[in-house]
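ok posting inputs for the TNX job
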Amino acid sequence: MVGARNPQVAIIPAVKELQHSPGHFTITSTTEIMAGPLARPVAYMLADQLRASTGFEIHVRAEPVEENIPRQCILFATKAAPNTSSEGYGLAVSSDGVVVRATDEAGFFYGMQTLLQLLPAAILAKKPVPAQDWYVPCLHIQDQPRFAWRGFMLDVSRHFFTPSEIKQLLDAMALHKLNTFHWHLTDDQGWRIEIKKYARLTSVGAWRKGVGFNLDPKSTTAYGADGRYGGFYTQADVRDLVAYARARHITIVPEIDVPGHSSAALAAYPEFSCSGGPYSTDMSEAVVPGIFCPGKEETFEFLENVLSEVMDLFPGEFVHIGGDEVSKQNWRNCPKCHTRMINEGLSDVSQLQRYFTRRIEKFIESRGKRVIGWSEVQADGLSKSSVIMDWTGGGPEAVRSGHDVVMVPEEYCYLDLYQLRNRATEPPAAGGYLPLRKVYRFEPFPAGLTIEQQRHVLGAQANLWTEYISSLSHAEYMIFPRLCALAEVVWSPKESRDLEDFSRRLLTDERRLEQLGINYRHAIGEGTASSP
Ligand code: TNX
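and the output
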């Protein structure tokens, strides 16, 4: 027999309430899953996973579900404890069977994730594992998330990740109950999403000659089939990934970063810049970062056409419009920008960015979507329904002026920072130091907010910028286990945080990551004084 009979429970993120009882339930070749209509998609997903790793048949009986548990059954019942949110669930394991209770599909999905984490990590294997017993310890769990926005951002511009690489990351997010994938699709170094109306965005904007950032071109995997550096997602790829994420209760928030960080778009269409270009994605050459020209009407027509295609592809509520780090030098020297400023009564280039952002916001809102932007757009007087993603510290102020916020402070949430003090042993990363235990300590509510104001904090996310990333496995080394810590920050009750216990659970979670084929930095002694 492989695996302990009563393995210690090691769920990440930690559940809200847990009571142990003696005994266990065992999944065998005769175990069945029973599910009513609402839980059926989750029941089929669970059956697929159990079949793959146990090799058992595992039937799903799609029947109206009663409370009495027949023997040897995993039962999904549409009934929950009072005050359970749509993502909440109850899980009861007795020696007779397992009952997952929820009122919504999302709750069933998270109940399933917890059940999988109660089993030996090999339950996540893609092929049957011989000589393994599939025990679930008897217990009662009542669980629901602390925050609604539990996110991860991936920059696919500086390093291109293939659709199957993205799927692997989505799987790991789902396992840790994260529900928002912020897809940073455009930046100076590459435009990554096919736009039918403007083919050059990807035929030109998705490729660069050098790799840049002092990376050895031989070290990086982001080469297209023809040997050029870069790549992009076709609209079919995007639809497939949106559906893949949706099945895992993950919403994808696309980011089209404007008006700055736009060299790739302007390399393809320099006519929408102030000077007319040239621009380049090849950041190993000295080029001025690209910025769209708000003096030209054609710029808005172009961006509205692009955003229309983007909004058609992503069914979620939010569109991220970037807005970070806009150097406005070009605007100062541009006659069209000057004319715009005079006509609109704008006194300086900051007001011109305000004009730009609000015009884009109005367009997105006219399509029934909500805008989210980086800290910098806070100065742009957006409508109250728009959300500020705070990376530089203006969160409390944004909340006080009536906005919802998502907290991503650089010092706690930036996975491109070094995770060890000794940089010599680490692959190149952005400056700064963010060890696992610091992510774990992160508190998403900024200090000084009233309870009423705290409602405006939708949640938090970790961001991976990829200037120094050469491959999926390198990205994963930066992401895990720090994203596991963030998952606990945004899901679990604040009072239950315990670094030592988290470090213990992480040892089991590492086995799960291995089953998914995911690389990670082994967290040695994180809960102790000798941690790195
Ligand atoms: C700032 S955070 C950026 C990114 C960089 C990152 C490097 C933000 C909104 N913009 O463009 O990749 O710093 O850490």
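notes: Residues 324-325, 374, 391, 414, 416, 430, 465, 467 surround TNX (CB under 6 Å). The chain is about 30% helix and 20% strand.
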